[in-house]
């Protein structure tokens, strides 16, 4: 129920498990009836506009807050009401003599909770509230046992905490119709609390089941758990809802039976998110938080990281990232790699290891989505349908906006992947229900697929807005070959062990003369365009050899944006420049190395394409302004822009 650390306030604490709530307290005098007594209450924080008000007062010739405070000190203390404990912003005297505006804690929910429900014993407690049993007094549910989440209004000390409660109820109302989602019945309030009435799950938490099994599950039992988690998370992500606090404590079993279905609960930290939106507030639980959350730029991929942590725990019984303090856990998440060498990983299948590794990839772009994870070989089941994936819509949007050269590169990549790797793409294509006459897709197929899976949550998250970016499909149709090229993610292909093989096969698709170089003419022939029709791709003339170098430079940078291979160094000599690309000489771009080179040299990287002859140093062409051999060197040195690589700085 509870969150392990508060919104935007990561703190250090033993075990990384608790919330540290700081509140400055002050001792105040109260009414004559309480004369002689002293009461501690939270002191409201000063207004952020205090200095602005003071400046305006000076300009208008009014008394400064300091002088007003001094004059007020000479008078006897006024009698003020004592707010509820924890309600620091609730109308007390603010610092500097200012009065803070009272927070509106009226939600507009039904105020007849006591008349409709009989509250029972407490069954769970979190930081912001607790859960109790309840029984319905009237209506269709009369006599039925329910679960009631009770959230104290006294602990809603900020506008953010109030908005969190409103959003939790809105998400529970909007999401409906999934078997692994806890049912929402009603929301009520009174002067003290907000009550969220939900389905009662009597089977206990997933965490309790893990502990009762000695800390770990068998692979087959873990598959059943992970499949249910992925099913409900894929549903939430398609609707535009990111949970942001996935952990074993937030999954409950309906009954105590071993084969009981599991329900996801606690949407207190969840939020609506548009397909291309990035969130920046740090929320979640320390052991399960994704690296990009700590970097304050994340989306639905953060939930997939949390599922990877849960799967790791299910399979081996230990956490992949651990430290004694919360800050230590965060450092481990950012810098450490999970251990797959110690027991019991030696007895776990390679497919299960690959599944966890592809979820715990620190580059969120290389991480699988929930729908892709369900089609992974470890979980694949022909009898279970693969759900519609919002990633398909985002990739097609990017494809429609890409250059012809990049589309050709994606087409080459799509031809290099195996039939087994096409299972996910074929499933998504069939979910869009292509035309029965020609088997092609148009804009209407995408619109109907979303509407058939739509709930009120999809409207709240504005997920349907992505259809506006697919308008080009209103004037043409897309066959499976083009759909396959549009919906592959080169970043995810890079995470595969056979990435180099895929890249080599894609490279050979462009090479037509049999002598390994790729010329601009060959690229034009592949894409049925003329190089002269692409003026934006032109470079200064550098001769025949320079033209071949230039074409490969654009193949590596413009067409594939580092998705294939980057030529780091084939040989160091440049006396007899000749393009000779041998698969053994190709290296994948190492973003860490690229970042290190950038920090060390602070100069553009240079890639020399040459023959095997004695190496000799050479300067950058820009340093040869007064030298006669400038043109010769320009034809032999190909600068590679750092923009072809992507890396993220990790704060110390």
From TrEMBL:
Residues annotated as binding ATP: 149
UniProt-recorded Gene Ontology molecular function terms: ATP binding; protein serine/threonine kinase activity
Domain Protein kinase positions: 117-379
Matches recorded under InterPro entries: CDPK_Ser/Thr_kinases (IPR050205), EF-hand-dom_pair (IPR011992), Kinase-like_dom_sf (IPR011009), Prot_kinase_dom (IPR000719), Protein_kinase_ATP_BS (IPR017441), Ser/Thr_kinase_AS (IPR008271)
Ranges of biased composition (kind: Low complexity): 64-77
Entry keywords, A to Z: ATP-binding, Kinase, Nucleotide-binding, Repeat, Serine/threonine-protein kinase, Transferase
UniProt region (Disordered), positions on chain: 35-97, 630-652
PROSITE patterns: PROTEIN_KINASE_ATP, PROTEIN_KINASE_DOM, PROTEIN_KINASE_ST
Bias kind Gly residues: ranges: 85-95
Alphabetized PANTHER family for the sequence: SERINE/THREONINE-PROTEIN KINASE (PTHR24349)
Name of the protein this chain belongs to: Protein kinase domain-containing protein
Native source organism of the sequence: Oryza meridionalis
């Amino acid at each position: 129920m509870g969150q392990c650390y508060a919104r935007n306030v990561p703190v250090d604490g033993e075990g990384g498990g608790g919330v540290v709530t700081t509140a400055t307290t002050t001792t105040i005098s109260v009414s004559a009836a309480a004369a002689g007594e002293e009461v501690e209450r939270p002191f409201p924080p000063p207004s952020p506009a205090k200095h602005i008000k003071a400046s305006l007062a000076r300009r208008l010739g009014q008394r400064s807050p300091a002088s007003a405070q001094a004059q007020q000190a000479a008078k006897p203390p006024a009698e003020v009401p004592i707010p509820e404990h924890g309600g620091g912003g609730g109308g007390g005297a603010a610092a500097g003599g200012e009065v803070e505006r009272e927070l509106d804690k009226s939600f507009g929910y039904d105020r007849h909770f006591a008349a409709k429900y009989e509250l029972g014993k407490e069954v769970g407690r979190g930081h912001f509230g607790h859960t109790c049993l309840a029984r319905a007094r009237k209506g269709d549910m009369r006599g039925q046992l329910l679960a009631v989440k009770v959230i104290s209004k006294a602990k809603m000390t900020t506008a953010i905490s109030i908005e969190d409660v409103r959003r939790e109820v809105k998400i529970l109302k909007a999401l409906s119709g999934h078997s692994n989602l806890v049912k929402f019945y009603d929301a009520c309030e009174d002067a003290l609390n907000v009550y969220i009435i939900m389905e009662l799950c009597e089977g206990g938490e997933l965490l309790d089941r893990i502990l009762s099994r000695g800390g770990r599950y068998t692979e087959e039992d873990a598959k059943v758990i992970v499949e249910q988690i992925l099913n409900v998370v894929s549903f939430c992500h398609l609707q535009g809802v990111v949970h942001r606090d996935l952990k074993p404590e937030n999954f409950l079993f309906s009954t105590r039976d071993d084969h009981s279905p599991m329900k996801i609960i606690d949407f207190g930290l969840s939020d609506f998110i548009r397909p291309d939106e990035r969130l920046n507030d740090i929320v979640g639980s320390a052991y399960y938080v994704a690296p990009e959350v700590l970097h304050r730029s994340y989306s639905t991929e953060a939930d997939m990281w949390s599922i990877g942590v849960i799967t790791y725990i299910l399979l081996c019984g230990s956490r992949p990232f651990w430290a004694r303090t919360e800050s230590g856990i965060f450092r481990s998440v950012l810098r450490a790699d999970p251990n797959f060498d110690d027991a019991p990983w030696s007895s776990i299948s390679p497919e299960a290891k690959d599944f966890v590794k592809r979820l715990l990839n620190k580059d969120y772009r290389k991480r699988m989505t929930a729908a892709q994870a369900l089609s992974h070989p470890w979980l694949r089941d022909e009898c279970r349908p693969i759900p519609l994936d919002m990633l398909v819509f985002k990739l097609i949007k990017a494809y429609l906006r890409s250059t012809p050269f990049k589309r050709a590169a994606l087409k080459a990549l799509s031809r290099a992947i195996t039939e087994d790797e096409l299972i996910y793409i074929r499933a998504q294509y069939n979910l869009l229900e292509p035309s029965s006459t020609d088997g092609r897709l148009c804009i209407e197929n995408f619109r109907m697929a979303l509407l058939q899976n739509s709930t009120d949550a999809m409207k709240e998250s504005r997920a349907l807005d992505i259809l506006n970016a697919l308008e080009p499909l209103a004037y043409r149709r897309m066959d499976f070959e083009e759909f396959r090229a549009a919906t592959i993610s080169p970043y995810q292909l890079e995470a595969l062990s056979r990435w180099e093989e895929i890249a080599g096969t894609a490279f050979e698709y462009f090479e037509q003369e049999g002598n390994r170089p790729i010329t601009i003419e060959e690229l034009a022939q592949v894409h049925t365009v003329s190089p002269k029709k692409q003026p934006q791709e032109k470079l200064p003339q550098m001769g025949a050899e320079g033209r071949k170098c230039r074409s490969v430079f654009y193949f590596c940078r413009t067409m594939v944006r580092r998705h294939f291979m980057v030529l780091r160094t084939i040989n160091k000599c440049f006396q007899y420049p000749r393009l000779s690309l041998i698969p053994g000489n190709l290296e994948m771009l190492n973003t860490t190395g690229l970042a290190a080179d950038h920090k060390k040299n602070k100069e553009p990287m240079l890639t020399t394409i040459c023959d095997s002859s004695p190496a000799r140093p050479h300067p950058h062409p820009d340093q040869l302004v007064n030298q006669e051999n400038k043109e010769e060197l320009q034809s032999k040195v190909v600068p590679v822009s750092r923009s072809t690589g992507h890396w993220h700085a990790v704060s110390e």
